[in-house]
Amino acid sequence: MTTVSEPIESHLPPYESLEHVEILTYYTDGGFDPVHLEDEFCNGRYRVVHKLGNGSYSVVWLAKDQHTNRYVALKILRAAASSSSNEAPILHILEEHQSQQPKSRGGQYVAKLLDEF
Questions:
Q1: What is the pLDDT of residue 7?
Q2: CA–CA distance, 23 with 17 (Å, rounded to integer)
Q3: CA–CA dist 114, 95 (Å, integer)
């Protein structure tokens, strides 16, 4: 455990961060948006079910696609990182390549971008 030395607001005491839990101070302007279980995204299409993981760049949630009744991963980037991220364009290029060569070896293991918003 590590103790965060600077609280978010001066009247709040320092808190102790827990291993495998994102740092509270990441929830500031340019940081993470708070997400809760049962939150819905994209006009109710994706409903948050469980947290899968987090890092300094994003938080990944398990969500249920209400249209297809499938489980999907919902990756939510930090606000400051979302405009400079190359992840979506790279996934588009991989998808285009796979559609041109659908029988390519290992292609079924490449992540597919189902939606972005």
A1: 41
A2: 6
A3: 10
User: Which pairs from 52-59 meet CB under 8 Å and 24+ separation?
Assistant: 54/21, 54/22, 56/26, 57/81, 59/22, 59/32, 59/35
Is residue 9 over pLDDT 60? no
User: Cα 4–79–50 angle (5° rounding)?
Assistant: 75
SS3 annotation, the chain: CEECCCCCCCCCCCCEECCCCCCHHHCCCCCCCCCCCCCEECCCCEEEEEEEEECCCEEEEEEEECCCCEEEEEEEECHHHHCCCCHHHHHHHHHHHHHHCCCCCCHHHCCCCCCCC
Mean pLDDT over each residue of the chain, to the nearest integer: 77
Instruction: Dump pLDDT digits (tens) for 42-85.
Output: 999 999 999 998 877 888 999 999 999 999 999 888 877 767 77
How far apart, in Å, are the Cα atoms of 39 and each of 1, 68, 98? Answer: 30, 18, 33
Looking at the DSSP bridge assignments, the partners of residue 17 are: 2
